[in-house]
Design brief:
Elements: H1 7-22, E1 28-33, H2 43-55, E2 61-66, H3 76-80, H4 84-96, E3 99-102, H5 113-122, E4 125-128, E5 132-133, E6 143-147, E7 152-159, E8 174-175, H6 179-186, E9 222-229, H7 232-244, E10 250-253, E11 259-264, E12 267-272, E13 278-285, E14 291-298, H8 307-320, H9 323-326, E15 328-332, H10 338-353, E16 357-361, E17 372-375, H11 376-382, E18 389-395, H12 396-403, E19 423-426, E20 436-442, H13 451-455, E21 462-463, H14 469-478
Parallel strand pairs: 1-2, 2-3, 3-4, 7-9, 9-10, 10-12, 16-20
Antiparallel strand pairs: 1-13, 5-8, 6-7, 11-12, 13-14, 15-17, 16-19, 18-20, 18-21
Length: 486
């Protein structure tokens, strides 16, 4: 269903499009967002924030980069509506600027690849990525060209090869390559590649459309951008290849739900978080030489929000949420941002099991907990997955090394190659290397093929038994005295 716009809103959007079409400087504004994960309640504010950012750069032609994971398979509104509100926000964003979408591991949660690609093409959204499918012609082009008056941006897309994070029904057919191997093959000749597409859908002729209305056939200089939905640890593995050149103006990262804005080896490196809490941007000035400035911007409620759109989203909540999901589990005297809420969860698990520490991976969480009544739906947006609780005994020196993974990783290309997604948790203030500690985690982190990635070591975990982590924490939220977040 097309978005319904008021006449004033329609006039504003038309003005934005005409302004974009009329910019002659050739300078570009890239609006970067990733891992939206069906954050439907934030979509009206997201669109308003993008509008404001574009208006604040009237001399820059805008381009929106959606760096994977538009959808959330665990959100009941998204599931019951088949992602309809996610498609609607994509359609609204497309009215503001051209959209290039690098596929993420959750983008086929509701539609199979051919249907997903066709629907994006109908919206004139260009999809790219390095994932293929056995026995299928649904492979995406690896890159997209978007031509402005003074430059052609070649956007290259890569995605995670962590098969366990993709939809289960597709895992056996996925053709995935390690990001480093794929970049090693593609990157040295990427500037000469004829595999790029950007006319709004995969499979079309490899010729870049004009993002500003120019179609004079003049060859514009080529500048490279890399969109990675592979995660920070994987990005470290490809950095030595990028150093050798050709160097991209910027690398846009995603998948770990980090907020990061760095400048390394003459290249901008950015992660824009998760759940439409923030967006990233890159201001690219062309003349007299190419300069790039990047930053992160909070998505906040404002007077610019389209009230009709906000009402549409509220109506969807009323339509799709069940009485069980509206149930109030408990109440908080103050809001808990995600780090504090995750620490509360870990501390409760540790206290319940008389354990010394509890550690849960960052992307298991979606957002913090609100002040006041907390519904089951709000709780499920906080803790996305329902996992079994696991336990292991570990010596103090090993625990000390594991706790290094709780620090935000930053981006040191020559640092710990496996440290990407951080851990949240609760642990003792001091660690005695000579004693043993009981550590809890989820069965996701405890998987033998996941432990090295999350913990940097391998432990002998055993099931705790009994209720799942979510059930334990829901119960805790309803009990007085279990909201201590120290």
């Amino acid at each position: 269903m097309p978005p319904v716009l008021s006449s004033a809103r329609s006039a504003l959007l038309l003005a934005l499009l005409l302004l974009s079409a009329g910019r002659a400087s050739g300078d570009v504004l890239i609006v970067h967002m990733a891992d939206l994960h069906s954050a439907v309640d934030r979509y009206p504010a997201l669109v308003a924030t993008v509008e404001t950012l574009i208006e604040a750069h009237p001399e820059h032609a805008p381009l929106i980069l959606l760096n994977g994971d538009l959808f959330e398979p665990h959100d009941p509104i998204a599931v019951r509506s088949d992602g309809e509100l996610d498609w609607q926000v994509l359609e609204r964003l497309r009215t503001l600027a051209p959209v290039v979408m690098n596929v993420g591991n959750h983008d086929y949660d509701f539609d199979d690849p051919p249907e997903m690609h066709a629907r994006a093409a109908e919206l004139k959204v260009t999809m790219i990525g390095n994932v293929g499918f056995a026995g299928s012609a649904a492979a995406l082009p690896p890159c997209a060209d978007v031509t402005f008056s003074s430059v052609t941006l070649r956007i290259v897309g890569i995605t995670t090869d962590q098969r366990s994070t993709w939809p289960e029904r597709l895992r056996e057919t996925l053709l995935l390559r390690a990001p480093r191997d794929w970049i090693a093959t593609l990157w040295p000749t990427i500037a000469e590649s004829d595999a790029c597409v950007s006319d709004g859908g995969p499979g079309s002729a490899p010729q870049g459309p004009s993002a500003n209305g120019s179609d004079d056939g003049a060859a514009a200089p080529l500048a490279l951008l890399l969109a990675s939905h592979a995660g920070l640890a994987a990005d470290r593995t490809i950095w030595p290849i990028l150093r050798m050149g050709p160097r991209p103006l910027a690398v846009f990262g995603a998948h770990d739900h980090l907020e990061l804005n760095a400048y390394v080896d003459g290249m901008r490196y950015q992660h824009a978080g998760m759940g439409a809490k923030r967006i990233g941007y890159a201001v690219i000035d062309i003349d007299p030489e190419i300069r790039v400035a990047t930053g992160l911007l909070a998505v906040a409620r404002s007077e610019r929000i389209d009230s009709a759109y906000a009402a549409e989203v509220a109506t969807a909540h009323e339509r799709w949420l069940t009485e069980s999901e509206r149930e109030i589990l408990g109440s908080l005297t103050k809001a808990l941002p995600l780090p504090q809420a995750a620490r509360w969860a870990a501390r409760h698990l540790a206290d319940e099991q008389d354990a010394d520490a509890a550690l849960l991976n960052h992307t298991s969480f979606g957002r913090g907990l609100p002040e006041g009544p907390v519904s089951r739906y709000a709780f499920d947006r906080f803790l996305r997955f329902d996992n079994a609780l696991m336990k292991a005994d570990v010596d103090g020196e090993t625990l000390r090394r594991i706790l290094q993974r709780t620090r935000p990783p930053g981006f040191d290309p020559d640092g710990d190659r496996e440290h990407g997604e951080p851990l949240h948790g609760f642990w003792p203030d001091s660690i005695d290397p000579t004693r043993s500690y009981r550590v809890l985690t989820s069965d996701w982190v405890a998987r033998p093929d996941h432990q090295q990635r999350y913990l940097g070591t391998t432990l002998d975990f055993a099931p705790v038994g009994g209720d799942s982590i979510k059930t334990r924490l829901r119960r805790a939220l309803s009990e007085p005295g279990h909201h201590d977040t120290r």
